Amino acid sequence: MTKAEKTHLTHAHVTELLKGMIRIRHFEDKCAELYTQQKIRGFLHLYDGEEAIAMGVISVLGENDRIVATYREHGHALARGVPMPQVMAEMYGKAEGCSGGRGGSMHLFHAPTNFFGGNAIVGGGLPLAGGLALGDKLSGAEGITVCFFGEGAVAEGEFHETMNLAELWDVPALFVCENNGYAMGSALARTESETDIHAKAAAYGIASEVVDGQDVVAVEAAARRALASIRETGRPYFLECRTYRFRAHSMFDAQLYRDKEEIAKFRANGPIVRFQGWLLENHLFKDSDIARIEAEVDAEISEAVAFAEAGTWEPLETLTRHVVSDEAPLAPVPAAPSGRTSEITYREAVKQAIREAMIGDERVFLMGEDVGAYGGCYAVTKGLMAEFGETRIRDTPLSESGFTGFGIGAAAAGLRPIVELMTVNFSLLALDQIMNTAATIRHMSGGQFGVPLVIRMATGAGKQLAAQHSHSLEGWYAHIPGLRVLAPATVEDARGMLSTALQDPDPVLIFENVMLYNMTGALDEAAGAVDIARAAIRREGRDVSLITYGGSLWKTLEAAEALSTEGIEAEVIDLRSLRPLDDATIMASLARTRRAVVVDEGWRSGSISAEIIARINEQAFWHLDAPLGRVCAKEVPIPYPSHLEAASIPQVADIVAAARAAMGQDKS
């Protein structure tokens, strides 16, 4: 040890380190016992053998520093100061748990200690951590975000995307790789062409080092160096802590990939054995001191178990709590029309909304591919970088999962990011972050953390962009609880729905149909925020309800006009919101018309139109005078040739034919 390291090893501090490691070890032992008694269920990943890393790093963090952990996070939570009774109650799934019983073993959250949870998706917490650090940087906060992950995560794309962005944007994050030698049951040499993991981070220009993860003093010294560097430079730092887990990957793991002799060898030189031995050898501790600590820890664990046993199960009546915030903003009150309008494109309407939001709220910033001087793929944001600068209009690499995750983290840190994904097809590269983090963090944390994020993306066909740039997948996202899914079709909605979405405490996805960007419309000068939970009747009618959204609205209105020449008066409903669906407006229309056709640019199988029809059957079947109809995209990837592309998605003639069939006037 160097002199600088020795100055921190007071008797009180070595007691803290030793007791902290023993607390973790004994807690894990008790959890393993409780698992065999079926009191803890699901996946249980124990931290046995890695205690020196949690204690060595977390003991030197400040109150404002944040932690993002892995699914093996009990040790991190205890080291951070999450109360043991609440941790144990969460393991049981009790309402008194640190996540309200919603997260369980793999998802421990605790807002008072800035503990942003374990993440059960390997590597999934890395972009979140980078985004939290970015949020601190942009807001001028002094905190550092520490992210723990295993060596298996370095094979994931999110690891590399995060390393690149963290260094590119100089975010104050400490990345701690707990290299225990095995990614589940696969030895490192079997899965990585480069087994020197810290070299991977160094390749991105990140300051990095290797430390003996079984030596708590060495880990702490490295953590102090790393934190000092981050606070001085504002740049990320990477620690590879070489360690070993003494137990199986999870309680389901038969450990066929290693023998007992290997485990015994590492146990004999484990972090607690080594530190205790050093303390005894240097006469800093007596055997009686260690016995006293163990007795105190065991008593604490007994109390935690009793707390969990006495805890309560959350009542079934509150099952759907914490999917979205209980404090969603009220619907905006429409402004009185001024009577003064200007002709504006859909593209310019979206740009106006972004610009006004950035002027009115310094927490708002935009990130995405080519959103700067280029203005994004559809030139929506052209000119905004010159006005607001590169800090608030951030061009990103081609790493959708990475920068979307950074947006999620920045939102969780209190900012209001707008993430632009170039096209809906590319959004699938970010699906993990959208579905497994943005949509679930409020629920998994028992309502402690939310993600006020807006994600915009282009959707739809019509520009001969073929099968990887042209689909309508918004119905897929409307399937996911925890998200709000919008499809503005008018210039007023393009501007006003974005304004409202930025006030929402939960993630909002906005799908902008590519065929609308050049469309013009009259926008009142007094137009403001728009309700994002209600459908709109765009044309009143008595004979059949045509239900649609987004780019298909205008085809549907054209079809309605054509039908009127035949004496069929169609009512046109613009859904605007696909999640939540405005059932009330749909059912009220059906009560008037008693017939319906759903027009959906997505594929028929498993589509949003199928969901709408199911709801109509459930709620309004006895009002119907005819079978429900729908017009959807054909079951084919969107073709390139113009005539085939047009034939693959709903057109006016298709809608007219479906409405005639609903009226019993099929002329085919």
Task: Tell me what the structure shows.
The chain is an alpha/beta fold and 668 residues long. Helices cover 41% and strands 15% of the residues. It has a seven-stranded mixed β-sheet, with helices on both faces. Strands 1-2-3-7-6 form a five-stranded parallel β-sheet, with helices on both faces. Strand 6, helix 10 (216-233) and strand 7 (237-242) form a beta-alpha-beta unit. Helix 2 runs antiparallel to helix 12 (271-281), helix 6 packs parallel to helix 7 (157-168) and helix 7 (157-168) crosses helix 16. Residues 1-7 have low confidence and may be disordered.
Task: Give keywords.
seven-stranded mixed β-sheet, 26 helices, single chain, 668 residues, elongated, alpha/beta
Question: In short, what is this structure?
Answer:
With 668 residues, the protein is an alpha/beta fold. Helix content is 41%, strand content 15%.
Please report the distance between the alpha carbons of the first and last residues. 87 Å
Which structural class fits the helix and strand makeup? alpha/beta
Strand content: 15-25%
Number of strands: 21
Number of H/I helices: 26
Uncertain stretches: 1-7
